[in-house]
């Protein structure tokens, strides 16, 4: 052993006083055992946590039902907004995919130009056709918003 360590009172081996003592029986036999956490205390805590979790899971359907009944309007609005956002994203992705196909984009532009030309010729050139378009628009407005508006 190193004499410097012995002089300082430090030993590389633990002494009997460094180890916790647990008495067995009525003090007749003394055993040196490391200190441990009480198993019954730990078990009781885990059992308490388990009971709390079980009670929460048992009441979970009631909590969810109550939540949805209290917030039916806002949840419907949020759901509608999410549906619109998803629909717009899917539509834009579909149009982007169609735009990548050769000859599809110019063909659709040609169809749009032809329809615009037909609409101008059919409804906007003469006063009588503009009056007809205005009447059709008023009829559509009455159907959508109700009569008398």
TrEMBL record:
Cleaved signal peptide residues: none
Region of interest called Disordered, as start-end residue ranges on this chain: 1-20
Annotated TM spans: 75-95, 101-121
Xref: InterPro entries: CAAD_dom (IPR025564), CURT1 (IPR033344)
CC terms in the record's Gene Ontology section: membrane; thylakoid
Pfam families: CAAD
Record carries keyword Ribosomal protein: no
Keywords attached to this entry: Membrane, Transmembrane, Transmembrane helix
Domain spans labelled Cyanobacterial aminoacyl-tRNA synthetase CAAD: 63-146
Main location (coarse class): membrane
Membrane topology: Multi-pass membrane protein
The keyword Kinase belongs to this UniProt entry's keyword annotation: no
Location within or outside the cell: Membrane
Name of the protein in its database record: CAAD domain-containing protein
């Amino acid at each position: 052993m190193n004499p410097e360590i012995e002089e300082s009172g430090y030993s590389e081996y633990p002494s009997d006083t460094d180890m916790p003592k647990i008495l067995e029986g009525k003090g007749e036999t003394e055993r040196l055992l490391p200190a441990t956490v009480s198993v019954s205390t730990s078990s009781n805590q885990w059992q308490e946590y388990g009971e709390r979790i079980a009670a929460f899971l048992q009441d979970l359907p009631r909590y969810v039902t109550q939540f949805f009944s209290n917030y039916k309007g806002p949840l419907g609005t949020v759901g509608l907004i999410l549906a619109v956002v998803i629909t717009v994203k899917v539509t834009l992705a579909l149009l982007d995919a169609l735009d990548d196909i050769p000859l599809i984009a110019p063909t659709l532009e040609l169809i749009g130009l032809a329809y615009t030309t037909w609409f101008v010729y059919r409804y906007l050139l003469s006063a009588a056709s503009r009056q007809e378009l205005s009447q059709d628009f008023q009829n559509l407005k009455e159907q959508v918003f109700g009569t008398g508006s």
